[in-house]
Amino acid sequence: MSTVQAAGSALVEGRRWPRIVRYWVRHWPVPVVLVLIVLMMVPMLLALFIAAKSRAQFDFNPWGLTFPLYYHQTFPAAWRVVSQSILNSVIVSTVSCIGVLFFGSLSAYVFARFDFLGKDTVFVIILSLLMIPAILTLVPRFVVVHKLGLFQTMWALLLPYIAAGQVMAVFLMRTFFVSIPSEYFESARIDGASEFRCFWNIALPLSKHIAGVVAILQVLGTWNDIFWPYLTIGTKKELFTIPVALLIFNDQLGQQIGTQMAGYIIASLPLVLLFAFTSRLFVEGLTAGGLKL
Amino acid sequence: MGLLKSWLVGRFGGVAAGQQAGQTEERPSAAGQPQAGVLAGQGSHRARHGLRGRVRHALPYYAVLLPTLLGLLVFDYYPAFLAVYHSFFEWDIGLPATWVGIDNFVRMFTQDRTFLRSLRNVGIITVWIMFQATVIPLVVAELIFAVKSMRWKYWFRIGMILPAIIPGIVVFLLWRFIYDGSVGLLNAFLTAIGLESWTRVWLGDPRIAIWALTFSGFPWVNGVNTLITLAGLQNINGEILESSELDGASRLQRIWRLDIPLVFGQIKLNLVRAIIASIQIFEVVFVMTEGGPIKSTMVPGLWLYYNAFNYHRMGYASAIGVFIFVTILLLTLASMRIFREERA
User: Fold this and answer.
1) Where's the ABC transmembrane type-1 domain (chain A) (predicted)?
2) Using the beta-carbon criterion (under 8 Å), do A195 and B15 form an inter-chain contact?
3) Is residue A45 part of a domain?
């Protein structure tokens, strides 16, 4: 009896289809998603292929991968064009990141831990900025920057970036600080720690993770911003950030298509590298941006 | 910064010492309401009474908040105020402003044909992006959700994010290149599959350009939205899904009856984000077509920019900005309300 049953179930489960077919019936979404992801990466793969081409190779076969590869020529040529602007972008992203983290976490701490006259009102007023679209303030912010004499200086980027980045930082970090049990702080205070030490030695070390999310949001936002630097840096080449440099040099490099594509790849690399080391924070940072209602 | 830090240490440190002395009276209230005035310091009870006392008590906190508030005031609140204020003026940098009432808004809708065209364009883009931000991520999230191997799932999540970290400018420029009339990939592909008659200068034809622009970014999978939806799916209680399976519900029935209602919060979030982003869209247009050919791909955001910096009509540009702001506000509120009711 039992052998019959076993044989029967083996027939149902096993014999009818070979194993490989059963495997893919069970795992059919895997190839589908794989194809999707490859399609999503097509533009980048194209850039990678075309960056390997000399002019002649491009004329002969613009889309496939051609040999020999000319990476050793296109990348150095592109680097000479974009290196300054990569450096500028690194400076802008790093400095504005530090600024946002420093001032944002201090403010978030004050909002999270203390009670004082007008606190809730001020907090709501700060959060209300999330509702104001960037396009509304683009022109008048430019006017303000112009009047302050910051036009065509690095400050025209840094100060507004630091100011604007803090809204999200205060929001995210305040939520985190509130969740730290107040006993931590109370016992530290009893042991004689100053309020600043509570902030510096207790709150900040605990908030490394959320601070990383804030930092990634800030780096992504500043690295990818096209228009604000395009407006405020204007024609001052030595201050170009990477998007502005790509936009301007794109037309100048029209003939050297390989170099142009190498430039695109170089511009993407810093974020890809950052992602490689902090992929989890990246995912959270990107989805935390989704909280922006 | 160093100065601020030393000031804080001095200030807060001193207060801490002061508070230690009055510890016994402070403790009960501090335990009941943890955040309450630890800084109150010297003679806290007296300080908390009366407006002057409360203002004095609040001052040190505002001193810490000052850099944040000052930055926001100068670079965000004041510009927002200026935008609304200038929308009632005819004005350019360095020139005196003339009050024109609501003329700017009237002109937008009665005389400015480019603006009306831009409204149509942004309508097309918004409808598509709303679809792209909600339905496609749901489908892809369901696909990833159906993957049984945890390892593949992990890599797929990373694969979804990777395209999102390529700088926008690079993606836009690459798509401009794909649409190129002579060397573009799209034309090469059409020729290869025998549809040579379909080839064209995609971004150079005024009738086609807006559609080419809208549908750039194939296969239109928004990785971030997909992950948001996927997170919602993974939060669904596994027992609910199991019992639906036991009751003989098909996969499609389960998705329609269970998954969609249960991840509706995430879908709504994606929808509202799509509305906010697409109404003020202009960077992609600026990079790919600069609003052309013959302004056929103009969108309000870019038209604002041209008015402000090319035609020196800052007042008019501000009015367009206010219009965009109000539109976003109304659409956001409307979509949140509509979908709240539908869900109930």
Assistant:
1) 86-278
2) yes
3) no
